[in-house]
Structures are given as C-alpha cells and as structure tokens.
Design a protein that fits this description.
This is Gem-associated protein 5 first beta-propeller domain-containing protein. One of its GO terms (cellular component) is SMN complex. One of its GO terms (molecular function) is mRNA 3'-UTR binding. This protein is mainly beta. Strand 2 and strand 3 form a beta hairpin. The strands form six sheets. Strands 1-2-3-4 form a four-stranded antiparallel sheet, with no helix packed on it. A four-stranded antiparallel sheet has the order 5-6-7-8, with no helix packed on it. 27% of the residues are buried. Among the domains are: 124 residues, Methylamine Dehydrogenase, Chain H (7 Propeller); 94 residues, no CATH class. The longest helix is centred in the last third of the chain and has 8 residues.
Length: 317
C-alpha cells in the first residue's frame, strides 16, 4: 500500500499477509497504522507526515499462531491500547506506547476460532468465537463474564462483531447465514433485534462513527414511511413523502428529515436497498427502530433500549 502524500516515491508499505481477515488492520487518530502478519504486529507511526519517513516497529511473536483480529481503544489520545486475538485462542491487551502486554486471557479454548476482540467501553473487552461464545473481560479488575447463552436458541456461526460507539452495552453480530443480531450485553445478555439484509454471510459490519444522535429527541418527531415511498419521493418535497394517518404533527416531523442528510451527508434513498422490509418506522421520541418483514406482518422487532444510529454492513462478494 503506497501513501501518496509522502514526498518519497519509493515508500511502499506491504499489504498484510492476513489481508482476508476483515479486522487485521487499524488506523489511529494520530496516524498510526497497525496490522498483523502471521504472528507479528507491524506498527507504522506518523504515516501521514509529509516531511519525514514513518517510524517503524515490529512486535515479534505477538501470538504463537496466526493473528485474526485487531482493535484500538476508542480513547486512543488518552491511552494507546490495542487488543488482539489469534488462532492460539489468546486475547491480548497491549500498551502501544511501550510495545508491551498489559494482560491476556485464553477463555476460548473450547472454541474453534476467535473471530473478533473489541473494546467495550472504558474498562472491558468483548471477544467472540465463531460458535457464539462471548466473553466480557474487565481488564482493569481482570474479571471474566461468559455470555454463553446470549443468542438463546438461535444456532449461530458468528462472522463479525461491532460495538456501538454510543452505547457500550449494545453490540451487533454478523452471522454466516446473512442475519445480523443486535444484542444487549447487560446481565446475561439478550437479543434485542434481528435484521435480515443478506443472503450470504456477513463478512464485516460497523456502526456509523458520528459523535451524536442523528435525530433530536423530540416527542413530536415521528415518521412512518415505506422504502417504496422513499423511492417514489426522490426529487419531490418532503411533505409528499409521508402519507400515513399515524403521523402526528407532520410539519414538525418532516423538518427533521433534512437534518439526517445535513449532519452526516447521507442520502435517504439508500434505505431503498432494504428490500426485505415492508415498513420502516423512525421514532426519535423513544429513539428506536421498528421493522416488520413481508413474512411477519403481525410481528415487529423493537429495539426500545437502543439509540437510533446507522449500522453499515458489508455483504460477501
């Protein structure tokens, strides 16, 4: 991977040998690039500098077997922490200021593969194996919580995981079947909502990284529309989009829609890709998303405790 802003035409950073692992490379706010090779960690600091070469460091034998996942602390500017997982079934916490380990665990010995390890708030790390074994590690107290029944009766093969940046008690898990599970991590854990968006396995997923809620918390802010209405309303005024008697104070509700486009530069037409959904309800007063499918007209999956944020999912090619 060449960095075009560098003044040196011969500076090339080789791609990660584990490039097919979706969580094998991270980039920090201070322009530090870290990726995993077979067993080592490659660290490039000041990679965006236009006046000097990047500083390079190899952390040899970070794992005894192939590295499968990397993640950095969300508060990187305060403390430079990195968590890694490997096929040796270790989950390790690293102090990247000193290139040293701060702790580790091997709580996935009975699992086939540790899929991901992610920071969960300011004091926990969540790790998950492909068979759905979830471990919450409080690395400050060095305490472990096993959420072995978090998926209930659903038989899962987990392919990816992402923690909500606005609520560390909420995680999204992608499955081999194409299903996405939104999970509450409090207590023993429970499934909040099931989203069907792909026919093949989910290879990666992430939450929209904006630092604020995309809809104001206004009791009057309620819009009920369908994807078909979104498509038909392209290029029309917002007042023509909503045609549902359940909408209260339509003028107030509609004024909130441009806010989504203005704040995050998104186009509402992207919702038309949700072909499996018959109806999408956005309700800021309860900050929830309610969806109902064609095959489940009498059922609704309600995420009442989850703030309304965007979830980006990458389908398998």
């Amino acid at each position: 991977m060449a960095h075009g802003t560098l003044p040196y035409s011969n500076i090339v950073i080789p791609s990660a040998p584990n490039w097919f692992e979706t969580k094998i490379m991270v980039y920090s706010p201070d322009d530090t690039l870290i990726y995993g090779t077979r067993c080592d960690l490659m660290v490039f600091k000041d990679i965006a500098s236009k006046s000097a070469l990047p500083r390079f460091h190899i952390m040899k034998h970070a794992h005894s077997k192939r590295i499968t996942s990397l993640a950095i602390n969300p508060k990187w500017s305060e403390k430079q922490l990195l968590v890694t997982a490997g096929e040796d079934k270790f989950v390790k916490l690293w102090d990247m200021a000193h290139y040293d380990t701060m702790g580790m665990h091997q709580q996935h010995l009975q699992s086939e593969k540790v899929i991901a390890a992610e920071f969960c708030g300011s004091d926990k790390i969540l790790s998950v194996s492909n068979d759905g074994h979830v471990v919450l590690w409080n690395y400050i107290r060095n305490e472990m919580s096993h959420l072995s029944n978090i998926f209930g009766s659903v038989k899962v093969t987990v392919t990816g995981c992402s923690i909500c940046p606005h609520n560390p008690n909420v995680a999204a898990f992608g499955l081999k079947t194409g299903l996405i599970l939104i999970v509450d991590l409090k207590g023993k854990g429970s499934i909040i909502s099931k989203l069907r968006g792909h026919d093949k396995e989910v290879v990666d997923l992430d939450w929209c990284p904006i630092p604020f809620n995309i809809f104001p918390n206004d009791p009057k802010n309620k819009v009920v529309i369908s994807p078909q209405q979104f498509i038909a309303a392209r290029g029309k005024s917002h007042e023509s989009i909503v045609e549902d008697e359940t909408v209260s104070n339509v003028s107030t509700s509609i004024e909130k829609i441009p806010t989504l486009e203005q704040q995050i530069g998104a186009t509402v037409s992207k919702i038309s890709t949700m072909a499996d959904f018959q109806e999408l309800e956005i309700t800021a007063s309860t900050e929830s998303v309610v969806t109902s499918s064609e095959s489940q007209k009498n059922q609704q999956h309600v995420a009442e405790t989850v703030p309304l944020h965007l979830l980006v999912v990458i389908p398998k090619r």
